[in-house]
Amino acid sequence: xxxxxxxxxxxxxxxxxxxxxxxxxxxxxxxxxxxxxxxxxxxxxxxxxxxxxxxxxxxxxxxxxxxxxxxxxxxxxxxxxxxxxxxxxxxxxxxxxxxxxxxxxxxxxxxxxxxxxxxxxxxxxxxxxxxxxxxxxxxxxxxxxxxxxxxxxxxxxxxxxxxxxxxxxxxxxxxxxxxxxxxxxxxxxxxxxxxxxxxxxxxxxxxxxxxxxxxxxxxxxxxxxxxxxxxxxxxxxxxxxxxxxxxxxxxxxxxxxxxxxxxxxxxxxxxxxxxxxxxxxxxxxxxxxxxxxxxxxxxxxxxxxxxxxxxxxxxxxxxxxxxxxxxxxxxxxxxxxxxxxxxxxxxxxxxxxxxxxxxxxxxxxxxxxxxxxxxxxxxxxxxxxxxxxxxxxxxxxxxxxxxxxxxxxxxxxxxxxxxxx
Length: 421
Ligand code: PLP
Hints:
The chain has 2 domains: 135 residues, Aspartate Aminotransferase, domain 1 (Alpha-Beta Complex); 248 residues, Type I PLP-dependent aspartate aminotransferase-like (Major domain) (Aspartate Aminotransferase, domain 2). The protein is an alpha/beta fold. The protein contains 15 helices and 14 strands. Helix 9 links the parallel strand 8 and strand 9. The longest helix is centred in the last third of the chain and has 18 residues. It is 38% helix and 15% strand. The structure holds pyridoxal-5'-phosphate. The site of pyridoxal-5'-phosphate (PLP) has 16 residues, from helix 4.
């Protein structure tokens, strides 16, 4: 069956035919059946250079042999044990050693769960109710995160989802990333009622926006002065630019951190962790409840251990070099009159159409989404698979070769010439 036929079946089962809205695009998404290294294969056996990489977990590329080996060996023993296992300790130790601010942690099954529990913990620990998040910041799809959010919420025009009780919305205030003044004003107004500030250290769900000057340091300072907690959502940035989190590159230590994606080696995972005294408020030792049937799943842990053990040996500077080569090749070959910007940090990048380098959410939302999707479709025809949305992030993996990056950059510039203004 081809994608069109499969879509007509999946639409009868799932809203929009998909199990996550960001996978949908007009008129129907290409159905995939296999991934290998930097390539993804559709149901018609057409292959694409994959820059979506399952929205971020696959920094080693698809189906890394060591991860597959570890998963095969794990399922010989068990699928899920619902009891503590040594595998949890192994993965926990790797993460604790690599990210010093994570003194204690809990594994969850997704980044959404991780931020949901971290925010409840922040409220439980401080005895305060208000959460400050950034406009366009995406922390998953629970009630406290779906207010002026990013990613698919922007693509589909619902940054603040329906269905969230007003009582909840009133406890979430929204500041502007890279705009200290907006944060200061909120602290002046709500001061001692703010339980936590949560932010992605690099915005990755409104394209890619890097932190300016000492914005993260400023957040550390203002939260400390007000006895609020600082939460870095490193679901995308954890282990992406080195064998550590972005906080250690920026030199800013949050109270709590959330992770996901890479640390599960391609299997469903999330994690929240941080200061010992805060984490000890979690049940069963503390009064803040959190649980999960599949949390710390035996097979996921095996995949995560294998992936991180591989990553520990990888030369991240080579990934940076490849990514920078890709960016330069793109820039050199872009049609001159085209207004575009490649926003890149390490192996994360997005191509913004119709705007110059954005430093804020306000600038990002002026980008030409329609034109981006026209480019996306033409690139699909040419065998290049970008994340389907102007407000998503693309990724380069260790498995992408320099030749493939060069070819892809040339295909992108060719496509833009055709897409025109
Ligand atoms: N936080 C960030 C920064 C994310 O990018 C995402 C997902 O893309 C999440 C949280 C939610 O993670 P998940 O999709 O695993 O629930």
